[in-house]
Design a protein that fits this description.
single chain; alpha/beta; elongated
Length: about 260
């Protein structure tokens, strides 16, 4: 266990850069988890952290020290409170953090019962919420287009509340190409579609396609869809938040499959 008190320490500088730069996270293939909840979720998924960090004041609490010492990690650092606050992206430092390797790209599975295809999702909170919903609904595969927000950014991870560690997440996917090859129904959510979500048979394999928060789906993604459907909205709202729409769709699918 190593203690650091200097802001000029090379490890501290590297941690600050990693926490604040998406380019650095992509370059190094690593990211930061902040807070006991996320670090514990990673631990429970079977992961081994590159570094586990704690502030001096947090480590003075017996329960945090026990947790800190129990997390599998290649190295352990104790930082002065002010240093961990410089690393942290939270308004008030969580006291515990971990640096982890992000999973390398892997080949897409040949057979998929259900998945999400996300085209150009930009808001980290939306993506994290969608990932959390996917885990809750038992949808294990998520495919992201090249222009979507980085799935392993700290903001997305915090919004996902540990969902990342229980999903297969594929980045840099050409949504229309993948949809064209998918063996099942490709359901594009389109607010102006004539068909209702609730009239669709969702008991077979489904690839759900959701688009950018402002622009919606591209013409290419819409062309390869086998179904274009809308969520009926009798109220005055013009549209639903994409994360809310994804939740409605995935749990309607779950309802139909459970009923069957």
């Amino acid at each position: 266990m190593k203690s650091i008190h200097s802001k000029d320490n090379p490890q501290v500088k590297a941690l600050i850069k990693l926490a604040g730069s998406s380019r650095e996270r992509r370059r190094t293939g690593s990211t930061i988890l902040e807070g006991e909840h996320l670090v514990r979720a990673y631990q429970e998924s079977g992961g081994t952290a590159e570094i586990i960090l704690a502030s001096e004041s947090a480590l003075a609490r017996p329960e945090i020290r026990t947790f800190f010492e129990s997390v599998p990690a290649k190295s352990r650092l104790v930082l002065a409170d002010a240093l961990l606050a410089r690393v942290s992206q939270l308004v008030s430092s969580a006291g515990v953090a971990a640096v982890i390797r992000t999973p390398p790209p892997s080949p897409a599975p040949q057979s998929i019962a259900s998945c999400l295809l996300l085209e150009d999702i930009q808001d980290p909170g939306n993506l994290g919420s969608i990932l959390r919903t996917a885990v809750a609904a038992g949808v294990p595969h998520v495919f992201l287009s090249k222009s979507s927000v980085f799935a392993w950014s700290p903001k997305v991870i915090r919004a996902g509340m540990g969902a990342h560690f229980f999903l297969s997440i594929f980045a840099g996917v050409e949504v229309d190409e993948f949809a064209h090859l998918f063996r099942g129904s490709v359901v594009a959510m389109e607010p102006r579609a004539e068909a209702s979500l609730y009239d669709l048979d969702l008991r077979g394999p489904v690839a759900w396609v959701f688009g950018n928060e402002g622009a919606g789906l591209s013409e290419g993604a819409l062309r390869v869809a086998t179904h274009r459907v809308r969520i009926p909205m009798p109220g005055a709202a013009e549209s639903l938040n994409v994360a809310a729409a994804a939740a409605i769709c995935l749990f309607e699918q779950l309802r139909q499959r459970s009923g069957a």
